[in-house]
Write a structure and sequence with these properties.
The protein is an alpha/beta fold. It has 29 helices and 20 strands.
């Protein structure tokens, strides 16, 4: 009885929030007079004060109750929400590297740069937690330390290690990690569990036996699995049967109801588009599929049925909506799965009718997203792009335009992601005992959905966050938008402005790399001049992939002369960086003709300094087709056949090019060879029938 009597005052203080309890305690922070969004009930609780001790919410009281605090933020009736979460990011994208080339390690001198970019791209926009969905394993010791030791200056970081794929006979990007067989997959799970990882990412080319074994092993360690299934290797249904519930990217629902080997080219044919030579056209292709499905009742019925099964299992889908909206021209903020080349509009080249169909396809995709949500599929934000924080805000506005309520949108941005990642014990709602990660909106998005973009007081780990503006990163934007002269003039005017932090050599070097990697030579030289002036004792470095991307960017913009000049500049000034054989041959062909290009191919095809990649070579062929250089494209496809004679796809592409050149006999010959190597090449069979019928 005495024990119960002693517990009573504490219990009353906790449950009833008596004024006397609050008066006797001094809190570290009070956020007063706010309208609090309850992400669980989706209701707004008016006239509340949130009291914080250290990094944790200690009490929530009515506004008329008394309290003591060391610091107070006056809410003035503004909206307070939990901190947002982006469930699909890549530190590599923040850092400025693409998926093929990244620094082997994050060196101690770069810690501040990399973490600062996390705050710049995410925390400053209200994203207090990010999930990294794939990084080089050599980064993991550093990033796991950041995960285990969160601080108020940076977003919470949770990592998945590398993106897991099955053994393939090709060079993998650094953040793709191969497993050789099911047992090797189990070992990988155990090694990640021993390090302390609680999340893993299975990529689209992880085969079913490997995935089954790894899922089984992951269950023993309570590791949350996220998977990207868009290559008809494992479907969403098959993954759910294994116990996987988190799926990456809304567009990946399409290959679970139709076979890409059969329908990809059929879809291309229906809309008169070619295979995607750019990452933005790939995004457009993913969007077109929803228009393709809408026209076919049997596929739409399959999609609705898939949503029902996902909802019944409690599955979640990340979004990447703004990336697809960017390719379709349906958002005011351009983003892409790949940041190089730097651009403000998509690299897509469609007719007015095709563009209209693409915009319509995006609207159908958003209609299906709303259907999935209404059926109970848990949507969560996963931006998967360089500027993820800002992209997330524009993505939320796209949901509103598609008919989602603001209550649902804020739940998608907060609780849904935290629950799916099993982080909701500490985050995702404003409750006593949870971490004090919160957003205080300057303007209320319930009054106008565009207020999602309004200024916010970001409270991270119980402390107000304020980011010092970066001279280097704002210079980058001005350079891209207005050119080098305007950029340098802005820098000279602004360099002493106290609103900005000091000029940072790592940030300047990063900006130089990005400008050079997009072929913006004049802008890059301007930044290089600043670097040399302010950091005369340091040297600027660059990687080969950045230079290659810069050359391709100019070629996609049909600036051949600039591309040839830029390529020469790259090789002259950075002779020791990685070299691409497809690009070298392409430049030689454009500059001096087909015979010279073919001669260079024969000279260098076995040179270990040059990388010969089948997919890149094929992409160059399609880039030439888009430029209406059919003869040159045929020669590239022929060179690819000679380099990779066992690949069905190279013969398929050569057959397509011959058909466009009206060389039917050669087109038929190559389609037959493609089908011989891949009997499931249904599109090739269809083309073969058409060609044979027209002979």
């Amino acid at each position: 009885m005495k024990k119960h009597t002693m517990l009573l005052p504490a219990l009353l203080c906790l449950v009833l929030n008596l004024a006397s309890c609050n008066q006797n305690k001094t809190y570290d922070l009070a956020v007063t007079n706010v309208n609090l969004f309850d992400s669980k009930s989706k209701k707004v609780l008016e006239n509340k004060t949130v009291l914080v001790q250290a990094d944790t919410i200690a009490a929530i009281i009515d506004v008329n109750q008394d309290f003591n605090s060391n610091k107070t933020i006056e809410g003035h009736g503004r909206l307070l929400t939990p901190g947002f979460i982006d469930t699909h990011t890549h530190l590599m994208q923040n850092y400025g590297s693409d998926e093929d080339v990244a620094p082997e390690t994050i060196d101690p001198e770069d810690f501040e740069l990399v973490r600062g970019l996390m705050s710049y791209h995410y925390l400053s926009h209200g994203v207090t937690t990010i999930i990294d969905m794939g990084q080089p394993e050599t980064w993991m010791d550093v990033t796991l330390n950041w995960q285990k030791n969160p601080t108020p200056e940076y977003p919470n970081l949770f990592i998945c290690g590398g993106s897991i794929v099955s053994d393939e006979d090709r060079r993998q990007p650094q953040h793709h990690i191969e497993v050789m067989n099911p047992e090797d997959g189990r070992k990988k799970v155990r090694s990640y569990a021993e390090k302390g990882l609680k999340h893993m990412k299975f990529y689209r080319k992880l085969r079913k036996p490997d995935m089954e074994a790894m899922v089984d092993e992951a269950k023993k360690y309570d590791i949350t699995i996220n998977t990207h299934t868009d290559n008809n290797v494992v479907t969403i249904d098959e993954a759910m049967e294994m116990g996987i519930l988190n799926f990456e990217h809304f567009f990946t629902v399409t290959p679970s109801i139709l076979n890409y080997d059969e329908h990809w080219k059929a879809m291309n044919s229906e809309f008169g588009i070619q295979m995607s030579p750019s990452i933005d056209e790939f995004s457009a292709h993913m969007t077109f599929f929803f228009r393709y499905i809408k026209d076919k009742p049997e596929f739409e019925a399959k999609l609705m049925s898939l949503f029902d099964r996902m909802a019944a299992k409690g599955a979640s889908l990340s979004t990447a909506i703004n990336v697809l909206a960017s390719s379709a021209g349906k958002t005011d903020f351009f983003t892409s799965f790949e940041y190089f080349p730097i651009r403000r509009s998509p690299m897509v080249f469609y007719s007015e009718e095709q563009q209209r169909q693409l915009e319509e396809a995006f609207d159908f995709m958003m209609l299906y997203a709303k259907k999935a949500h209404e059926k109970g599929v848990k949507l969560r934000i996963g931006s998967d792009c360089r500027f993820g924080g800002k992209a997330m805000l524009y993505e939320l506005m796209l949901f509103h335009k598609a008919g989602f309520s603001m209550e649902d949108i804020l739940q998608i941005a907060t609780l849904n992601g935290y629950e799916s990642m099993k982080l909701d014990d500490d985050y995702g709602s404003i409750e006593v005992g949870k971490k004090a990660d919160m957003l205080l909106f300057e303007k209320n998005p319930f009054d106008d959905y565009k207020n999602i973009l309004s200024k916010k007081t970001v409270i991270k780990g119980g402390k107000p966050f304020k980011l010092k503006k970066s001279l280097a990163y704002e210079l980058l934007d001005i350079m891209v938008d207005d050119g080098p002269t305007a950029g340098i003039a802005w820098f000279d005017r602004t360099k002493s402005d106290k609103a900005y932090g000091p000029l940072n050599s790592d940030e300047v070097a990063n900006v130089f790399s990005e400008l050079l990697g997009t072929g913006k030579v004049d802008e890059a030289q301007g930044v290089f001049g600043l670097f040399s002036k302010y950091f005369p004792d340091l040297k600027m470095g660059i990687d080969g992939n950045t230079l290659n991307n810069g050359t391709y960017a100019l070629l996609r913009n049909k600036e051949e002369k600039k591309a040839i000049k830029f390529y020469a500049f790259s090789r002259t000034n950075f002779p020791k960086v990685e070299k691409s054989l497809p690009l070298a041959i392409l430049i030689e062909t454009l500059d001096k003709g087909i015979p010279t290009g073919k001669k260079l191919f024969e000279e260098l095809k076995n040179d270990i300094e040059y990388d010969l990649n089948e997919d890149e070579m094929n992409g160059v062929g399609y880039l030439l087709l888009q430029s209406e250089k059919i003869k040159e494209a045929i020669e590239f496809f022929k060179m690819n056949v000679s380099a990779f004679p066992d690949s069905w796809n190279v013969y398929d592409s050569l057959g397509e090019a011959y058909a466009l050149d009206n060389q039917k006999a050669l087109a038929i010959k190559n389609y037959k060879k493609s089908i011989e190597l891949n009997p499931d090449n249904n599109y090739g069979k269809e083309q073969l029938k058409k060609l044979s019928a027209s002979n």
